[in-house]
Amino acid sequence: MADSDCYAPLPSTPGIPRLSTVILPVRRWADGGRDTWRRAEELGFHTAYTYDHLSWRSFRDGPWFGALPTLTAAATVTDRMRLGTLVTSPNFRHPVTLAKELITLDDVSGGRVTLGIGAGGSGFDATALGHDAWTPRERADRFTEFVPLLDRLLSEGGPTGVSYRGDFYSAHEVRNIPGCVQRPRLPFAVAAGGPRGMRLAARHGQAWVTIGDPAGDPTAGEEQGWRDLARQVERLEAICEEAGREPAALGRILLTGFTPHRPLRSLDAFVDFTGRAAELGFTELALHWPIPDSPFEADQEVFERIASEGPAQLTR
C-alpha cells in the first residue's frame, strides 16, 4: 500500500524528530485523565498514544482503562494533536471488530488517528481469553495475517464488502461505510524487532516502531544501546530495499523507556539523545508521561520543560 496522503512520515523540520508522548490509561477520566490529555496538547506534542492492553506488568492490580474508549474521549477534548495506540495486537483483537472501532474513532477525531500495531507478547493479554499463550512463531504467523486483512477492511470495505478466509481470521462480506476520514485509510505504525515484522512495516506501514533491539542487553550501557539500534535500522533499510520501498519514505518511531538511555534526566540529556536518534534517521520519539512510583517515574517539571523547550533547543 502506498503512503497515506494524510500522514507525512518525515518530520516537519528536516533532521529533527517529532516529539510525542504515551499516556497510560491509569487514571479515571474525571480524576485527572481528561486533564492529562488536554495538557499534552497544550505542551505541543505531535501525537499522544496509549497502550492497548487489558492490563500491563506492574499496573495489573491497579486501575487500567480500555485504549479505544480512552482515545475517543481524548478526541473530544483535543483539537490538533494526533492520537494513537502503541501498540494494538492480535492477543485479544480481531481485525473485523477492530476495523469498525478504528473507523469510528477516526471519524470522532476528525482524522487524527494513527494505529500502532504489533504482534503482541506473552504478558497478561496473552491468556486473558482462556487459551495458552502463543509461541513467538505463532504470534508472528497471526500478525502476518492480521495486518493485511486489517489493511483491506479499512480501505476496501465499501458496498461490496471484504471477504477472506485464512488460517486464523475470517471475514464475510464486511462493509465499513463510510470508511476512514483519512484516505485511503488511517496510517499504520508497525512495531517490529525481527525481519518478518519489518517486512510487514515495509509493505503496509507508514511508520516502523521499535523499543530497541529485543536481543539487546538493557544494562549494557548507552553506547551499546546505540549500536543495537543502529543494527536494527540497518536491517530495516535492507528489508525496505528488498521490498522496493524507499527506506526514507518509512517513518521511524522510537518508543523510549526500554533501552539503556534516560532522556528524561534533564533537558540537556534529552537534546543529546534526540541528536543521536536523528543521526539514525528516527523521525519521531515517544516519551512516557511520568507516573509516580512506576517504571515511568520522572520529574514532571523536567518532562514539561523538555516538551516545551526541547524542540527549540534542537533547531539551534
Could you explain how this protein is built, in words?
- It is a single chain.
- With 316 residues, the chain is α/β, with parallel strands linked by helices.
- It is built from 8 helices and 10 strands.
- The strands form 2 sheets. It has an 8-stranded parallel barrel, surrounded by 4 helices.
- Helix 2 runs parallel beside helix 3 and helix 7 crosses helix 8.
- The longest helix has 21 residues.
- The N terminus is likely disordered.
- Spatial order of the strands in the main sheet? 1-2-3-4-7-8-9-10
DSSP summary: helix tally: 8
What overall form do the CA principal axes indicate?
globular
Beta-strand content bin: 15-25%
Instruction: Give the tally of β-strands.
Output: 10
Helix content: 25-40%
Order of helices and strands: EHEHEHEHEEEHEHEHEH
**Global structural class:** alpha/beta
Distance between the termini: 37 Å
| Uncertain runs | 1-11
Radius of gyration: 19 Å
Main sheet? 8 strands, parallel, barrel
Mean pLDDT: 93
Any descriptors?
8 helices, eight-stranded parallel β-barrel, 316 residues, two-stranded antiparallel sheet, alpha/beta
Q: What's this model, at a glance?
A:
This protein is an alpha/beta fold and 316 residues long. The protein is 38% helix and 15% strand.
Secondary structure elements and pairings:
Elements: E1 18-22, H1 29-42, E2 47-50, H2 67-77, E3 82-88, H3 95-108, E4 113-117, H4 136-156, E5 162-165, E6 170-174, E7 188-191, H5 195-204, E8 207-210, H6 222-242, E9 251-255, H7 267-279, E10 284-288, H8 300-314
Parallel strand pairs: 1-2, 1-10, 2-3, 3-4, 4-7, 7-8, 8-9, 9-10
Antiparallel strand pairs: 5-6
Helix pairs in contact: 1-2, 2-3, 3-4, 4-5, 5-6, 7-8
